[in-house]
Design brief:
about 325 residues, mainly alpha, single chain, Na+/H+ antiporter like fold
């Protein structure tokens, strides 16, 4: 039976189901603590597998293209945050201050890894550079995202980023990745030849984090605080923000003289925001009462970027062979 075109992909459907489940049957008390521990293990395993899968040869090949990586990092950790701050007056006219902080948090996050590389490959871009750039963005995000959150988001909440938060992020994300790189010489080939292993861990860990986060948010009354009109405005804001960053990364790469393959890499790596990294980071940095508001804009943006970039990659791929 042919899948109807109007249906989203399976992961998007799973996200919607998990949010609905958390809305009806949120985990509480000791059950929530058990889910929390399982989620931490799942996220650590995810980053371990990514470390084991990432080829050192691809990293070395990509590192030689430092101008491209610098542009991607500046787009991810400078241009995005500046847009979030500049658009504040307009955004606060249609969404609540809490949701605006969620948009700001979205702007501080690193790029995706899998989808950035996949779309670059589909569009016939510079894949080795994409591997290096997206991976570097994720590793830099472990340190830069908490710093940016401390500067941009925390002053509005009255809280502050602690060294304990940095420590938790390093232990949960960076350490497993480094251990995976160390273990690559023994298990790297097996992990790379079994992508069906990484995908369930990748998507399963995100679903677990979303379920636990939204369970707590539902207990705290998120759906009483976020009306349907706010969700519609968030969709429009996410679409507009993505369109703006896609245009800016395209224009910037052309003005700086990059070729088409490098332009593709800059556009796809510089315009993405990682759900896989963002949700665990939010879980560490924010209180259980606010985490739902923080990750809601991210989840909407994540789905929109996948759909839009899939179409854009096909258009790039249709260009004549040189």
């Amino acid at each position: 039976m042919t899948r109807p075109r109007f249906l989203p992909d399976n992961f998007t459907l799973a996200l919607l189901i998990v949010i609905a489940l958390a809305s009806v049957l949120p985990c509480r008390g000791e059950t929530a603590q058990v889910f929390d521990h399982v989620t931490n293990v799942g996220v650590a395993l995810l980053f371990f597998l990514h470390g084991a899968k990432l080829s050192r040869d691809a990293v070395i090949a990509g590192l030689t293209h430092w101008r491209l990586h610098l542009v991607v990092l500046l787009c991810t950790f400078a241009l995005f945050p500046v847009l979030g701050l500049v658009l504040k007056p307009a955004l606060l006219t249609v969404i609540t201050p809490d949701l605006y902080l969620g948009v700001l948090f979205l702007c501080t996050l690193p790029s995706t890894v899998q989808s950035s590389i996949a779309f670059t490959s589909m569009a016939r871009g510079n894949v080795p550079a994409a591997v290096c750039s997206a991976s570097a963005s994720n590793m830099a995000g472990i340190f830069l995202t908490p710093m940016l959150v401390g500067l941009m988001v925390m002053p509005h909440t009255g809280a502050a980023i602690s060294f304990d938060s940095f420590g938790k992020i390093v232990l949960q994300l960076l350490l497993p990745f480094v251990l995976g790189q160390i273990a690559r010489r023994w298990i790297g080939g097996w992990v790379s030849s079994h992508p069906q292993l990484v995908r369930p861990v990748d998507q399963g860990s995100i679903l677990l984090v979303v379920y636990t986060a939204f369970s707590q948010a539902v207990v705290e009354g998120i759906w009483q605080q976020v009306p349907l009109s706010a969700l519609i405005y968030l969709l429009l804001i996410s679409s507009g923000l993505l369109a703006l960053i896609l245009v800016l990364t395209t224009v910037l790469s052309r003005r700086l003289g990059f070729n088409k393959e490098d332009e593709i890499t800059i556009v796809f790596c510089g315009s993405k925001k990682s759900l896989a990294s963002g949700v665990p980071i939010a879980k560490v940095l924010f209180t259980s009462q606010t985490i739902g508001m923080m990750v809601l804009p991210l989840m909407l943006f994540h789905q929109i970027q996948l759909m839009v970039c899939a179409v854009l990659a096909q258009r790039y791929a249709a260009r004549p062979q040189q």
